DNA sequence: GCGTGACATTTTTTT
DNA sequence: AATGTCACGC
């Protein structure tokens, strides 16, 4: 049995899969079969009888990855995999907290706040506390709270050293108290609570530590401090941790991922038990060479070099555009050409650094009638109409939830305005009760609302989930509201979709109910209630972007969203200084512990740039056969034209693998000649317009906006503004390494680049 | 209580 | 360009 399981693995993969019962770190490069190794090891462990399915804990970051893992394992293992603990950190934490809600100090039907909910809860709190939101921005408060929770720190553990951080800490404390009162938990709270639960409760900890003999972690480089501690707590003396990750693909430091965890893990657990998976099965040679060369310029790496048995393949095509529009039309031409030659649109991806860049591309694609699909953006369960419906449901199951109350008390409008609510809030605060309780004793329109909710509660008590939700949507007036709105058709449809989702969910969990009541859990576990489970599901799995799947369409997404995916052809667009690497990435990367010493500032800047470089590395390694890199000299951003220099990352690639599409008649290679491209040819006839179109008009100096220049002292830069004439003429130049400067042409030593 | 217009704001994102 | 927030007036 297990022989065939291991048959198609290379020696390193096989070694990783069949490691003995010890902790190990698997450094798995892009396209090296990471998920395969992880799932095969799970199957191998179970199949060889080393562990029962219940003794395995497998953790991922996304629901998608968790599902993928389950699918693969089920395909290889004929047994029931239901009782296995495979899921996201948050999903598993939620499962733990629902099972042991009493020990965790939570109400049975505690609700989960998503980031939006959390932010409004913070705003509400700050309003009640009369905090100046100019000085303490709610978003920063949110980052402060989450940053600390992710570092495992409660408010009392935070070291506040000045007025500002002391105030922030007070807010943190008050916010947690508010959440506790209302029976809600934000995302990091799930992790921290679960952590504290096991930390403080020894019998429980013993139970889980005994149970989980093998813990497998995917994308280990993305773990934050709390998640790492969480894993350490779950791992008993007899538990083996199997961590798979790639430090070069760590692109989430900006939201708390701690890159040092990998090195730490190696020291604490793996003890030199490290296996590197360096053979790449995805990309052709030139693409890998580019990726390797680029990433080698990062200073702090664990070290790893990908190689492939495939040939070099095609050169990497570089296109220089004068404007974002020209870049877009270049992409459209190439995409259509490849498509004509037989490549599916869904095998091609358009990548960009930030979502705002998709606009121009979408416009060009739309005009050319190229079907496309944009990933990212608003998720299903985050749409306002869906959130309204969910808030009604939350209020039904957990009346203490003031956030839910406020969301729906006057939506659709019932004539309950700010004034009334202010009085209600005062009353509630005085009596020390929730808004709902205060509403129950109120008169007037508020009483009407209370009656409405009570009625809904009565009717839905014995209804199946989907019917209950249907009733809520009708009785609350949401349906009528959107029916009356001439632009409400989509929203109505989404509400219908919510009912469908609930029906589907009920169906699926019916099958799983038997397993959900965890037979091996210690006493105290209770079966979950359908509505609560559905609401948790809605919060934890915000839902894949609806519709559009199934058709052959070009894939548009940010580089972040592309992680873990692969395509035949990849276009990386907007390779400009300031955009990619993003200008804001160098600063502000540490939030909770912001110090101002110049040394750590420098370090931040450096690590910011390194993360951008890793991002570029991820982008490049998405491509199997063909890779396009493009940049535009001018770009509309936030309604203004910006001029930028080509990204430094372009300079960091080895010239011999690049093919410059703008100068196709000149030798594109400094040495050697490219192998003739195999397979797809693309829009080989493409050539750039003859002359740059500059929006700026005549001056007598020979310089114009958008032009690249070289300064004796400041280096290369691009002219972004111009004023004066003749001897008074001055230009503003944005230098790559020296910021922006106004220079008088009469004096400055400028030369065209 | 509710609609309107001025005003700012704008990386990346999962849970 | 587009979207959300907020103060203001009806």
What's the SSE blueprint?
Elements: H1 2-6, H2 11-17, E1 24-28, H3 34-47, E2 56-60, H4 63-76, E3 85-88, H5 89-99, E4 111-113, H6 115-128, H7 138-150, H8 163-182, E5 184-186, H9 187-200, H10 202-211, E6 214-217, H11 225-234, E7 240-245, H12 260-270, E8 274-277, H13 285-295, E9 316-323, H14 324-340, E10 348-352, H15 358-367, E11 372-374, H16 384-397, H17 402-408, H18 418-431, H19 435-440, H20 444-460, H21 465-475, H22 478-484, H23 489-516, H24 530-540, E12 554-558, H25 559-562, E13 567-572, H26 598-620, E14 623-637, E15 640-643, H27 648-651, E16 658-660, E17 708-711, E18 715-723, E19 730-735, E20 739-744, E21 750-752
Parallel strand pairs: 1-7, 1-8, 2-3, 2-6, 4-5, 6-7, 9-14, 9-16, 10-12, 10-13, 11-12, 13-14
Antiparallel strand pairs: 14-15, 17-18, 17-21, 18-19, 19-20
This protein binds a DNA duplex (15 and 10 nucleotides) through helix 5, helix 9, helix 18, helix 25 and helix 26.
């Amino acid at each position: 049995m297990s022989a065939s399981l291991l048959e198609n693995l290379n020696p390193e993969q096989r070694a990783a899969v069949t490691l003995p019962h010890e902790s190990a770190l698997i450094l798995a490069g892009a396209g090296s079969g990471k998920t395969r190794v992880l799932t095969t090891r799970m199957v191998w462990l179970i199949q060889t009888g080393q562990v029962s399915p219940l003794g395995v804990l497998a953790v991922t970051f996304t629901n998608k990855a968790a599902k993928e893992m389950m699918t693969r394992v089920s395909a290889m293992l004929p047994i029931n995999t239901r009782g296995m603990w495979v899921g996201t950190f948050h999903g598993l934490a939620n499962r733990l907290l629902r099972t042991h809600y009493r020990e965790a100090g939570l109400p049975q039907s505690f609700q989960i706040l998503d980031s939006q909910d959390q932010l409004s809860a913070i705003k509400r709190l700050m309003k009640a506390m009369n905090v100046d939101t100019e000085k303490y921005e709610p978003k920063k408060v949110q980052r402060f709270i989450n940053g600390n929770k992710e570092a495992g720190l409660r408010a009392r553990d935070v070291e506040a050293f000045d007025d500002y951080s002391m105030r922030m800490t007070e807010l943190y404390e008050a916010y947690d108290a508010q959440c506790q009162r209302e029976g809600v938990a934000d995302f990091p709270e799930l992790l921290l609570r679960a952590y504290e639960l096991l930390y403080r409760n020894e019998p429980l900890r013993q139970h889980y530590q005994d149970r989980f003999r093998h813990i497998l972690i995917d994308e280990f480089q993305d773990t934050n401090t709390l998640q790492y501690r969480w894993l350490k707590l779950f791992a008993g003396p007899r538990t083996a941790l199997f961590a798979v990750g790639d430090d070069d693909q760590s692109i989430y430091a900006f939201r708390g991922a701690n890159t040092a965890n990998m090195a730490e893990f190696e020291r604490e657990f793996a003890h030199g038990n490290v296996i590197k998976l360096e053979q790449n099965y995805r990309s052709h040679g030139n693409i890998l060479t580019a990726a390797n060369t680029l990433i080698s310029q990062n200073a702090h790496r664990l070290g790893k070099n990908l190689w492939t048995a495939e040939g070099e393949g095609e050169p990497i095509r570089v296109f220089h555009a004068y404007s974002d529009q020209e870049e877009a039309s270049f992409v459209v031409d190439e995409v259509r050409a490849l498509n004509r030659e037989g490549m599916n649109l869904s095998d091609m991806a358009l990548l960009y650094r930030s979502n705002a860049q998709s606009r121009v591309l979408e416009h060009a694609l739309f005009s050319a009638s190229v079907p496309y699909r944009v990933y990212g953006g608003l998720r299903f369960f985050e749409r306002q109409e869906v959130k309204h419906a969910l808030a009604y449901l939350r209020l039904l199951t957990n009346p203490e939830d003031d956030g839910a109350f406020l969301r729906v008390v006057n939506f659709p409008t019932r004539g309950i305005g700010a004034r009334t609510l202010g009085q209600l809030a005062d009353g509630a605060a005085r009596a020390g009760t929730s808004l709902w309780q205060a509403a129950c004793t109120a008169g007037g329109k508020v009483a009407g609302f209370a009656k409405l909710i009570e009625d809904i509660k009565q009717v839905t008590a014995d209804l199946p989930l989907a019917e209950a939700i249907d009733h809520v949507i009708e009785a609350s007036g949401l349906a009528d509201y959107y029916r009356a709105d001439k632009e409400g058709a989509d929203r109505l449809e989404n509400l219908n979709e919510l009912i469908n989702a609930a029906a589907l969910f009920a169906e699926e969990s019916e099958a799983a109910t038997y397993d959900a009541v965890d037979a091996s859990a210690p006493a105290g576990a209770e079966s979950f209630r359908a509505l609560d489970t559905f609401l948790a599901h809605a919060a934890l799995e915000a839902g894949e972007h609806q519709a559009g799947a199934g058709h052959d369409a070009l894939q548009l997404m940010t580089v972040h969203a592309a992680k873990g995916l692969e395509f035949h052809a990849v276009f990386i667009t907007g390779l400009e200084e300031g955009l990619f690497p993003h200008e804001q990435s160098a600063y502000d990367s540490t939030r909770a512990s912001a110090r101002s010493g110049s040394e750590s500032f420098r370090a931040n800047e450096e690590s910011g740039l390194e993360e951008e470089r890793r991002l570029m590395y991820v982008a490049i390694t998405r491509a199997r056969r063909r890779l396009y890199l493009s940049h535009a000299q001018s770009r509309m951003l936030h309604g203004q034209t910006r001029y930028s220099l080509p990204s430094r990352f372009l300079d960091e690639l080895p010239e011999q693998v690049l093919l410059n599409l703008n100068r196709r008649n000149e030798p594109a290679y400094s040495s050697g000649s490219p192998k003739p491209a195999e397979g797809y040819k693309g829009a080989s006839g493409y050539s750039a317009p003859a002359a740059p179109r500059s929006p700026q008009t005549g001056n007598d100096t020979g310089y114009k906006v958008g032009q690249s220049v070289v300064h004796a002292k400041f280096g290369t830069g691009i002219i972004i503004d111009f004023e004066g004439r003749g001897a008074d003429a001055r230009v503003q130049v944005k230098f790559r390494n020296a910021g922006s400067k106004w220079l008088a042409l009469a004096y400055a030593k400028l030369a065209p680049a």
